[in-house]
TrEMBL record:
Residues 230-456 form the Concentrative nucleoside transporter C-terminal domain. Keywords: Cell membrane, Membrane, Transmembrane, Transmembrane helix. Belongs to the concentrative nucleoside transporter (CNT) (TC 2.A.41) family. This is Na+ dependent nucleoside transporter domain protein. It comes from Telmatocola sphagniphila. It is found in: Cell membrane. Its main location: membrane. Coiled coil: none annotated. Residues 126-224 form the Nucleoside transporter/FeoB GTPase Gate domain. It holds the Pfam family Nucleos_tra2_N.
Length: 470
């Protein structure tokens, strides 16, 4: 068999027809299928869509695909079904909340009442949501200096490489994405990036887009997102990133680290204090970037809404995105009656980024659970206020599945971010990175949708409350 021959067109068309039929069937009979049946067919549709876009379906290693899916389901089932495992995640989640509370102490000293949601100023995003990024970044920098993060990363890397048969470098980088961002995790395997195969590069990029960093994890938890769900989706995204990347672009070359990668990451700081200071600098840059990005993207959304509203008063960006991504939301397992609202968030996440979608998703992000601000919140708050009102109406199941689907960096801006970050580590591979950008975005986005579908199949029909509801 010639390894360079791609997927035959008849096979590609056949898969596309089957997937299209499954999509139509799932949407038409969503209510009769039940929540778990709806998510199960959605999982097959997402997997089939990835197979239809595969470079060379005949070269896909069934071992990687089978064990990757099994590992993803096993991890999700353990977290969502076993009380002891869930309690461990709850303890970690409470630890993150404690870190956020500690950052509040520093923010209160510097900003005073401006950092207190219950104060006279209400919830001020810049003074409440951004300080945790700075502290968490500093904290993780210290853990990295002490070697704690490396131990956890190596454990996950060993587990996945052993059962899935992926290369050491790509598996190590995927594991690092549980805690690190899409440009920080590749630093773990920086020496190997110049010689990575294209399949490994795709995995490297897609995994970064399928995860969120530790700092952003803390921010979303501070918004009110359930810590267990955030942690669970970041972990199950690891095997999913690997098997989905290998499904879309199977390995046809021999990776340099096919037998494993024993990498010793050099320490770049003199001591723990220096590491903490360096983390503060990185966190400050990230916080400023988040603030600037939100200002720009929310302003653009408001501008587009004003333009569209002047022509068609009943239309908005949110409504258009909701209609376009409504089928995707249904395939995840969202109630059909709520699918348009969740679909709008999925579209905004892709077109803008996940943070803008989260701000629109959680009223806690804007109102800070301040009951004095609930009256008339739709007036004067533009698209954010309207989206927040919609969020209140979402069922608990839809809220949880939306958390899974939004927790990833998969958006168009991430292509540029990775070109700059990863490209700086391997200048000679910049053209390959650019060519793989859209494919990595596709895989990363599909991973978040599959995570939601997997959770939808396993979770109880009536889960506990994850977001504040008045």
């Amino acid at each position: 068999m010639n390894p360079t021959v791609g997927t035959p067109l008849p096979l590609r068309l056949g898969i596309s027809v089957v997937v299209a039929g499954l999509i139509v069937f799932t949407i038409a009979y969503a209510e009769k299928l039940g929540h778990r049946g709806q998510s199960a067919l959605g999982f097959l549709c997402f997997l089939g869509t990835a197979a239809a876009f595969s470079n060379n379906l005949q070269r896909v290693k069934l071992k990687t695909l089978f064990w990757g899916i099994l590992l993803q389901f096993s991890l999700a089932y353990a977290v969502l079904k076993f009380d002891d495992v869930r309690r461990v995640f709850e303890v970690v989640g409470e630890g993150i909340k404690t870190l956020i509370a500690c950052s509040d102490v520093g923010a209160d000293f510097v900003f005073g009442s401006l950092s207190k949601p219950g104060g006279p100023s209400g919830f001020v995003f810049a003074f409440k949501a951004l300080p945790p990024i700075i502290f968490i970044s500093s904290f993780f920098s210290v853990l990295y200096y002490l070697g704690v993060l490396q131990l956890i990363v190596r454990f996950f890397a060993f587990l996945m490489r052993y059962v899935m048969g992926t290369s050491g470098a790509e598996t190590l980088s995927v594991s690092a994405n549980v805690f690190m961002g899409q440009t920080e995790a590749p630093l773990i395997v920086k020496p190997f990036i110049p010689r990575m195969t294209k399949s490994e590069l795709l995995t490297l990029m897609a995994s970064g887009m399928a995860h969120i960093s530790g700092g952003m994890m803390a921010v979303y938890i501070s918004y009110g997102a359930d810590p267990v769900s955030i942690l669970c989706t970041c972990i199950i995204a690891c095997p999913c990133s690997l098997y989905l990347s290998k499904l879309v672009m199977p390995e046809i070359d021999t990776p340099e680290t096919s037998d494993g990668a024993d990498i010793k990451v050099p320490r770049t700081h003199a001591n723990a204090i220096d590491a903490a200071a360096g983390g503060v600098k990185d966190g400050l840059f990230l916080a400023m970037n988040v603030a600037a990005m939100l200002i720009a993207f929310l302003a653009f959304i408001a501008l587009f809404d004003a333009i569209i509203g002047s022509i068609w008063p009943e239309w908005s960006i949110q409504k258009i995105m909701g209609i376009l991504f409504q089928p995707v939301a249904i395939l995840m397992g969202i109630e059909p009656s709520e699918s348009e609202r969740v679909g709008s968030l999925l579209g905004i996440k892709l077109a803008a980024n996940e943070h803008v979608a989260y701000v629109k998703f959680t009223k806690d992000a804007v109102l800070g659970m301040n009951p004095t601000m609930k009256l008339g919140m739709g007036a004067g708050m533009g698209v954010v206020g309207a989206a927040i009102q919609d969020t209140v109406c979402l069922s608990q199941r839809s809220q949880l599945l939306t958390v899974y689907a939004l927790s990833g960096f998969a958006n168009f801006a991430s292509i540029g971010i990775q070109l700059g970050g990863i490209g700086a580590m391997a200048e000679g591979r910049r053209s390959d990175l650019a060519k793989l950008g859209l494919k990595a975005l596709f895989v990363g986005y599909m991973v978040t949708l599959i995570n939601a579908a997997v959770a939808g199949m396993i979770m109880e029909p009536k889960p506990v409350q994850y977001f504040f509801n008045p």
